[in-house]
Design goal:
The structure is a homodimer. By secondary structure, the first copy, chain A, is of the alpha+beta class. Chain A has two domains: about 30-125, SH3 type barrels, CATH 2.30.30.230; about 135-420, Alpha-Beta Complex (Fumarylacetoacetate hydrolase, domain 2), CATH 3.90.850.10. Chain A has eleven helices and 26 strands. In chain A, strand 23 (about 380) and strand 24 form a beta hairpin. The longest helix of chain A has 14 residues, at about 85-95. Chain A is globular and about 70 Å long.
């Protein structure tokens, strides 16, 4: 079904800049504020945002079972609830409407005025209301690096890691879209050599290079999702920066896990790229040894070849690329994560988000956090402007980009880019 | 302001059974399905549920700034967003309407038919859409008991425990109201003596006696809530059973905390008792030594004297009370928990829920979990029917009750009661 829509030969009548992340083969979904201050659901081709609410009102989705207001909403949750069949029908229809050989909208200037926006006319919003957010810890390289630094270099991986896609519940209320500035968190830490914990701004603010997937309603309370069906419940993926305060984390996280070290903010890219758009970029995931339990076993290409990059730009200065990684390094797949998440009967809703965990590659220039890149501050990175970084400093903008590329087609995620500000002026005494 | 509404001398024209949790001084808020299959927001006096949506339509809340549909909703979130002043105006008005000396509704048979339901005519729902759920770990006795069992009896409390109200993010999607049956979760465990992890139903399903509070919108991203203001953002409290699978927890929880061991289900009592109703039952919380950091310091009576009880009833058999505890044992107060939760700028929304953590008292008959009551299975409890319990068995119903009592007035929470069923018949291979 997605084959035709993914056809590399397909061209659109909209302009698509060279190396754009958003050719007609992508068709991501997002939510934006228009120039008239209206919130709508939309897609993007090249540098044009397309108002799907308006397209639907104009009758372009005729024949597809959609409620009248499905795109006139401030989140994608209801559309995602409609399920995979409907996502695909809509994606295919959008592909037809903007096909170079389709004259209907192409030559209707009145409709085009209503439907099309340039990217600078709109403001991207959070695409979904995230009911529950879970973060996994599924990069073996990352878990190994952290284990080496904080536990035992000889037994870096904990005993459960190769058996379980380890994960934890995160905070939904502070997930913000790209462009939202982040405040340096304050809190308790226990610095080396101190006799009691100290209070103040975190000194070790870090990014985490992650991706995340968005689910649809998948089960009822008590029901598990088989690993072979899990992909059907994944709507799409975004780039994800899981901001972390390493010093707060170190003092608080035993025994119940990271809490305030993470919940001050997490940033996502605003366009959800569908699994159908990513289909041509499937790759095998790393060999799993020992063989996982049956409920986690799967065959075939269950990962995706997604090039990832992290840039740091000091205030008013040019960016330096500090890491190049790839989603394909993930040890546990999304299907395995979802099967594991529901093996206990945990209910999954439309708009739930699940992070991959930090995506570190095998080499030191492919690590997914400053903690690893600068190895606990022992190997500071040098930026283009000559400054060094052990962690993120106030005024720095961290930008994660990601894209797939094959047969001349590039399907990208755009970026998640956020500036770290000094601590919020708090009312706290 | 609440003084008049809390007056012990106040009587209502509705019948209130002896020892009822719901005298006219309580006025809790909940959501229920009526005999006409309509969902509405309501309150309860004695064994009558009162339809606030209907009362509002009939003009009984005239003069209070409320939108027309504020009670015609399937969650309390919007009403809670209206803030403390409005909660209080509504509570006071309800108190007036049902005052023995007020004839208006009392003698309007037509209105009474529309507004009043007996409890057996309605079905209680989840009172709020819980955006984010956080669980704390704030009973010193519980943390000490767990530390003794799983870590070092000599150093049972972890170093951060006396400095931080330790907490973690939980799963919102599986919080269910009293009466919803729970399925025994399946998953991975690593039993003592095994060489590899095993798969199957949890063998150590436990309850956790907790209470939880529900918040209103409190801050913007980045902003902290001062401990002295924190109580203003708490709408009310419920009873909370934080179902736990001890064997799953043991294998999965290092290093990121409890995950599937908790997320299979958590149960709450359906009526939210407001902080105004609890006002007369304030007590001092335990002395905190060492003195907490300034952002956690507070004076006065910041805890509440709430009697708690846990009963276990085997299938078709009478209940046995297995624990009697009290909310006042909590080391960290709700205000401290909320101040800590936001010290990093974490945004708190209307309908967020925060659990106390297991509430264990100082004696072995006041512990808040089977893990502690039967001390890791070494001291099985004997039920009235002669059976013993180390943990919860299929068919058992666990019921938590809670109430305050002073000057002849009893303000109660009703109960959270849930039956444990065998594992869900899963599609998983």
């Amino acid at each position: 079904m997605p084959a035709k829509t993914n056809d590399p030969a397909k061209k659109t009548w909209l302009p698509v800049p060279l190396h754009s992340d958003f050719p007609i083969q992508n068709i991501p979904f997002g939510v934006f504020l228009t120039r008239e201050d209206v919130i709508t659901i939309g897609t993007r081709i090249g540098d044009h945002a397309i108002d799907l609410g308006a397209l639907h009102q104009l009758g372009y989705f005729e024949g597809i079972p959609l409620t009248d207001d499905i795109f006139l909403q401030d989140t994608l949750n209801d559309f995602i609830s409609d399920g995979k069949k409907t996502w695909r029908l809509v994606r295919n229809r959008i592909s037809e409407i903007f096909d170079k050989n389709n004259a209907t909208l192409q030559h209707n200037e009145e409709h085009k005025k209503i439907v099309l926006f340039t990217m600078d006319e709109i403001e991207m919003q959070l695409p979904v209301l995230i009911g529950d957010y879970t973060d996994f810890y599924s990069s073996k390289e990352h878990a190994t690096n952290v284990g080496k630094m904080f536990r035992d270099p000889e037994n870096a991986l904990l005993p459960n890691w190769l058996h379980i896609p380890v994960g934890y519940h995160g905070r939904s209320s502070t997930i913000v879209p790209s462009g939202t500035p982040i405040y340096r968190p304050i809190g308790q830490t226990f610095p080396k050599g101190a006799e009691t914990p100290v209070f103040g701004p975190s000194k070790l603010v870090d990014f985490e290079l992650e991706m995340a997937f968005i689910t649809t309603d998948a089960n009822v309370l008590g029901e598990s999702i088989p690993v072979d069906e899990a992909e059907d419940y994944i709507f799409g993926m975004v780039l994800f920066n899981d901001w972390s305060a390493r010093d707060i984390q170190k003092w608080e996280y035993v025994p119940l896990g990271p809490f305030l070290a993470k919940s001050f903010a997490s940033s996502i890219s605003p366009w959800i790229v569908t699994m159908d758009a990513l289909e041509p970029f499937r790759v095998e995931s790393p060999k799993q040894e020992p063989t996982p339990m049956p409920y986690l076993q799967q065959n075939g290409k269950k990962s995706f070849d997604i090039h990832l990059q992290v840039d740091i730009a000091p205030e008013n200065d040019e960016p330096t690329t500090v890491s190049k990684s790839n989603f394909k390094y993930m040890y546990w797949t999304m299907a395995q994560q979802l099967a594991h998440h529901t093996i206990n009967g945990c209910k999954i809703n439309s708009g739930d988000m699940m992070g991959s965990g930090t995506i570190s590659g095998p080499t030191s220039d492919s690590y997914g956090s400053m903690l690893e890149l600068a190895w606990q501050g022992t190997k500071p990175l040098t930026l283009k402007n000559g400054q060094t970084r052990k962690f993120i400093e106030d005024g720095d903008t961290v930008t994660i980009k990601g894209h797939c590329e094959k047969n001349g087609i590039r399907i990208g995620f755009g970026e998640v880019s956020s500036k770290l500000l000094p601590p919020f002026k708090s009312k706290t005494k």
